[in-house]
Amino acid sequence: MSASLRLFETDDPGWDEALARAGRHDFFHTAAYHEVAARRDDSTALLVAVEHDGVLQKARDVGAATFIQGRTYDQLLGDVSRGNGDPKLTVFGGNTTPNLHALVSRFPLMDNVMANSEASIDGHYVTSSASIPNYVARNWPQNYAGRGRPTDFGVYSVSWPGNGFLFDQAKRQSVSYYNYGEGVAGNEPNVPDRNLPAALLPEVQAKAANSDLGPGLTPGGCYPPDLTIGTALDNGEIFDSTLPAGAPAGSYSHMSCFDKRFATQLSQNAVPALNYISLTSDHTRGTQPGYPVPTAMVADSDQALGQLVDTISHSSIWASSAIFVMEDDSQDGADHVDAHRIPVAVISPYAKKGAVIHTLYDQLSMVRSMELILGMHPLGLDDAMANPMYDAFTATPDNSAPVTAIPSKVNLLERNTTASANAALSSSLPLGEADQVPQAELDAIIWHSVYGAGSMPPPAGPNANSKQ
User: Fold this and answer.
1) Which of 86, 301, 376, 392 is most solvent-facing, going by the fewest CB within 10 Å?
2) Would you give the distance in Å from CA 391 to the centre of its chain?
3) Buried (b) or exposed (e) across 271-282, using 16+ Cβ within 10 A?
4) Which secondary structure element, helix H or strand E, spans residue 238, and what is its range?
5) C-alpha distances out from residue 360 to 12, 77, 117, 389, 455, Å
6) Can you give the residue ranges of every domain in the chain?
7) Which residue has the higher pLDDT, 444 or 12?
């Protein structure tokens, strides 16, 4: 336990003193913990979380979290022989995702982490608020089934969790934060909402002021949100990584936007404690003609992940940083263990070097780990009872060398054509937004794009919730 405490606060002798007084495993739930946490200096650490669309992604203390969209463990890491993977199910292996593979080689490989969610809609709530409101649980299947239900999740107050989102809790506890692209957070004050109490409007405005949701939502914004895939609200093309040579005029780069703001924050000694970063390209546009092929879009997200870690690890705050990378959901993809198993990464000077960890964790474990590092109270029972990722960390910064991003081996501008497998089907589907297409269809489209139109896509993994 003392190892975890030294990671969370190395400068304050009050940690060891409070631990001695508490003397038990549930130290983080005691008044002694909160007494010391209240004295923390938010300028001393960075936590980063990264989301893969369908990729999750979070980490900040000063921290950063990265989220990526909807893939199973086997789909990305099944080819890693050190872990419990099935290479026959791997779709985007080391040639497509070299940065993720390199990170889980040097930092812990965690092969038993489960999504608490079934799809991106409820997944974004788990990662941004550690809960799924009843309104959302009852209504997302109709939206996901393509029945024409409008998407109001996270935007209108009726869909917000009772205790709000991570950003609300951070504000309540004076923890600085910045949100890059997460639209499921109650942070769009210009949307008319007849159910929003007037007293809550300033809170929504405050979250908007600490968010970049790109053009059309954030004045001067450069980080298009996770509300669209591949194309911003002004029709500019979206890349997660820095723009490749030859990218269309008017394109957006999530990483270039982050780098610019991060450099300013560093120069002002004002990097927020919590940085929530959403990467969306790996959701893909299927084989819709004119858009990058699925392999290119997944490679784009992977290169962005490498660039993000490269930037932070070469900065002055790396010594006190932790980066959590997770999917927002697995979306019933192929996996030989469980359809909910997701690829994750925990990146920090204090993360165990080269470890393989089989401990059962879930998305809430990551959220709780970030809350503990930040000194934040849990938002509810689910994150309060979650199992923190203690096994991923050590007491000393043995993994402190900076990380260098690996340039993509994939042509990020390779486009689908009308001759691509399932091109006509992809064109008929609303792939410009997450969760508008039954996942079995999109999984088959992606499988055929990689292995050929005549190949047979594998079924969803055990415990898939495909009936919804």
Assistant:
1) 86
2) 20
3) bbbbbbbbbbbb
4) strand 238-239
5) 31, 17, 16, 9, 33
6) 1-40, 45-451
7) 444
Sign of torsion, CA 193 236 128 41? negative
The answer to whether residues 154 and 161 touch, using CB atoms and an 8 Å cutoff, is no
Which residue's structure tokens are 């964790």? 361
Report residue 288 as tokens.
């819709």
CA 356 vs CA 110, 184, 200, 346, 401: distances in Å = 6, 33, 45, 12, 20
Question: How much is the mean pLDDT over the chain?
Answer: 85
Asked whether the CA dihedral 116, 119, 124, 125 is positive or negative, the reply is negative
Which candidate, 49, 51, 31, 108, places its Cα nearest to that of 77?
108
CA distances from 315 to 35, 208, 215, 274, 366 (A): 30, 27, 28, 16, 24
What distance in Å separates the CA atoms of residue 402 and residue 405, rounded to the nearest whole number? Answer: 10
Quick count: other Cβ atoms within 10 Å of Cβ 418? 10
Helix/strand/coil percent split, the chain, to 5: 35, 15, 50
> DSSP alpha helices (H): ranges in 89-217?
98-106, 120-129, 134-144, 166-172, 201-209
List of residues 6+ apart from 451 with CB closer than 8 A: none
Nearest to 373 by CA among 141, 53, 58, 119: 58
Q: Which helix (H) or strand (E) holds 107?
A: none
Number of helical H runs and strand E runs in the chain: 15, 14
Report pLDDT digits (tens) over 132-182: 999 988 888 877 766 777 778 888 888 899 999 999 999 999 999 999 999
Measured from the Cβ of residue 197, the count of other Cβ atoms closer than 10 Å reads 9
CATH 1.20.1060.10 fits domain 45-451: no
Reported as a single tens digit per residue, the pLDDT across 295-345 is 999 999 999 999 999 999 999 999 999 999 998 888 767 999 999 999 999
Residues 6 or more apart in contact with residue 126 via CB below 8 angstroms: 115, 116, 117, 132, 328, 363, 364, 367
